[in-house]
């Protein structure tokens, strides 16, 4: 990498570290717009919560980007910028221009993170297909829309003209007045 490219990348990294101090100061001082949320509509409270969470995520993103840029500037000063911290090979110039904070070559990028982590809920969820839930049995029968309708229709449907009873196969029960319930 030539000195002109290195100077351009260093300028971009310094721009990341220099900006947003005012936003960081304001972020720490911000609170909700009112002292009490007791009289607020739940939708207003939800909107304020969403905005606060969004601002927190953006603040964390800026903070991490600034830390990465500072680490890259330290590597420039040490003379190790542009070399992979894992294998020591030179990082391609295109990658550095796309991400000036990159410390690893593309082969090693992201391997230190838990990039294959899946949510714990997936361990207990049953598989789903286009026709319905897959049954746990060996024959892989499906509980599809027709089965759902048949299960629900046992308790009556609004268009069949029948009074609603506990179950289609049972006799209609009467209360003390003689009316069906």
Write a structural description.
The radius of gyration is 31 Å and the shape is flat. The termini are far apart. The chain has helices at 3-18, 21-29, 42-78, 93-98, 145-153; strands spanning 128-129, 132-134, 142-143. The protein has two domains: 3-31 and 42-115, DksA, coiled-coil domain (Four Helix Bundle (Hemerythrin (Met), subunit A)), CATH 1.20.120; 118-158, no CATH class. The protein is mainly alpha-helical and 181 residues long. It has five helices and three strands, in the order ααααβββα. Strands 1-2-3 form a three-stranded antiparallel sheet.
How do the helices and strands follow one another from N- to C-terminus? HHHHEEEH
CATH class of the largest domain: Mainly Alpha
**What is the helix tally?**
5
CATH fold description of the largest domain: Four Helix Bundle (Hemerythrin (Met), subunit A)
Average of pLDDT: 76
Please give the order of strands in the largest beta sheet: 1-2-3
Structural class: mainly alpha
Shape, please? Answer: flat
Strand content: under 5%
Q: Report the radius of gyration as a whole number of Å.
A: 31 Å
- What is the CATH superfamily of the largest domain? DksA, coiled-coil domain
Distance between the termini: 84 Å
**CATH architecture call of the largest domain:** Up-down Bundle
Number of strands: 3
Helix content: 40-55%
Number of domains: 2
Low-confidence stretches: 168-176
For the biggest sheet, the summary is: 3 strands, antiparallel
Question: What is the compact description of this entry?
Answer:
Helices cover about 45% and strands about 5% of the residues. With about 180 residues, the chain is mainly alpha-helical.
